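Action item from last meeting closed. Structure (349 res):
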């Protein structure tokens, strides 16, 4: 539920409360809100509004006579207000300059995304990550491994040592020597080509009648086709600064056990890529706060991500940090960095 359910006065008081809590880390008193909100209302009026906000689940009172702190629902209202009023963001000159320097040193998208995750992590001092598809990933080699009988393990190794594999039943026993010759043929023909081109070329040759006259060639093509057609576009995923969470556990309100669980999750890159793909359904900003996470281990944290899509591919740059996050600055930096990555890639293409 967003900010439209609240009056303008309630939204402004809640926004002021969130900003103060992010800065100080302590419960915010009604007297301070009365002074800082700019509404010209009394402390008594503020207390009445805070009581209503607490009843609705936007704030809570840690203990009697203390001020209030925002809940995840309160953070959501604050972030929605930020997103409604924000203007297009551009990365700082320094950030874009460093990304361009990285692109000059190495034209690989993988290296550029690694640099982006490093930059956002250093800027916000929490976990920075960068995710990108790799439409230009190239085939390094194919391997056929006999598993006994008519079963063959097909291994596809693409750039960056990304590996895909599938067990295929060829319906007849094949000798190891035949599998080696078949793999050598495919590697000679298609090694070094983008995977998308390999898929298309293999399918085209399968449709040519002349392949029927060469049993070994036809088998090699069928094995490659059955594996490549089911392989998703490979992704590259970089994480930077995960250990920084352990340096300041109190600020995030998460226990050391929770932080260590998050670090373990980040190490399982395939799991994180799957999770991010669930959250991100298109270009633009994505903000997931605390209890909104489907995965319980992430609920003490917030995720801010920005996704861009163009002819150079799809990429996402983001941050994982405590729910008590400086959302305005983080959103601006993450979005600006994503757009800078896109500009650098377009300039290099």
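Sequence:
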């Amino acid at each position: 539920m967003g900010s439209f359910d609240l009056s303008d006065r309630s939204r402004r008081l809640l926004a002021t409360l969130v900003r103060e809590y992010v800065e100080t880390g302590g419960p915010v008193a009604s007297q301070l809100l009365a002074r800082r909100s700019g509404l010209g209302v009394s402390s008594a009026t503020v207390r009445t509004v805070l009581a209503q906000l607490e009843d609705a689940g936007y704030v809570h009172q840690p203990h009697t006579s203390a001020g209030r702190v925002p809940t995840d629902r309160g953070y959501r209202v604050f972030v929605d207000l930020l997103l409604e009023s924000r203007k297009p963001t551009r990365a700082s000159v320094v950030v874009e300059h460093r990304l361009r320097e990285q692109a000059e040193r190495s034209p690989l998208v993988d290296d550029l995304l690694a640099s982006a995750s490093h930059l956002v992590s250093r800027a916000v001092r929490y976990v920075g990550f960068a995710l990108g598809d790799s439409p230009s990933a190239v085939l390094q080699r194919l391997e056929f491994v006999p598993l006994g009988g008519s079963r063959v393990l097909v291994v596809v190794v693409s750039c960056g040592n990304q590996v895909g594999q599938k067990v295929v039943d060829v319906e007849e026993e094949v000798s190891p020597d035949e599998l080696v010759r078949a793999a050598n043929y495919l590697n000679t023909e298609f090694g070094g080509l983008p995977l998308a081109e390999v898929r298309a070329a293999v399918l085209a040759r399968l449709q040519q009648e002349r392949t029927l006259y060469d049993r070994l060639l036809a088998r090699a093509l069928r094995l490659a086709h059955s594996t490549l057609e089911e392989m998703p576009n490979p992704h590259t995923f970089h994480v930077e600064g995960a250990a920084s969470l352990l340096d300041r556990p109190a600020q995030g309100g998460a226990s050391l056990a929770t932080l260590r669980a998050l670090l373990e999750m980040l190490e399982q890159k395939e799991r994180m890529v799957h999770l991010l793909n669930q959250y991100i359904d298109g270009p633009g900003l994505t903000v997931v706060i605390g209890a909104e996470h489907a995965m319980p281990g992430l609920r003490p944290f917030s995720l801010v991500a920005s996704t861009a899509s163009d002819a150079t591919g799809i990429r996402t740059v983001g941050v994982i940090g405590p729910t008590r996050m400086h959302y305005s600055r983080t959103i601006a930096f993450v979005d600006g960095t994503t757009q800078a990555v896109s500009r650098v890639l377009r300039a290099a293409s």
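Note appended to the action item: DSSP finds 14 helices and ten strands in the chain.
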